Amino acid sequence: xxxxxxxxxxxxxxxxxxxxxxxxxxxxxxxxxxxxxxxxxxxxxxxxxxxxxxxxxxxxxxxxxxxxxxxxxxxxxxxxxxxxxxxxxxxxxxxxxxxxxxxxxxxxxxxxxxxxxxxxxxxxxxxxxxxxxxxxx
Length: 137
Description:
It is a single chain. By secondary structure, the protein is an all-alpha fold. The chain has a domain at 59-136. Helix content is 75%, strand content 0%. The chain is built from ten helices and no strands. It is elongated, with a radius of gyration of 21 Å.
């Protein structure tokens, strides 16, 4: 709780860069339960993206089937992190979709995802996905 310690210190109260109203407002935010709940939710979401980024940014590049599969996993983890509340996760997924458009939505990538043994046997999501089946045909 170093952040809470910082806003309760004398140095914080003597900060010349912001007035007492702003300092009090920041203290209220830092001490609120909602701030820490939201911060925890954000950490869960960012962890998913960090894993994906780490995998893609290595010297040995992964196969596209793994990247596509992991992106699907990230989408599921974002939904789970947001307690399946569409109003929260929908804007995040829209950003993902926008960034992946014309990069990871090629019909050629879906068969690579489908035939990747790791993704194919991990769960039944791959086998039941209609867009993947359509790309195969």
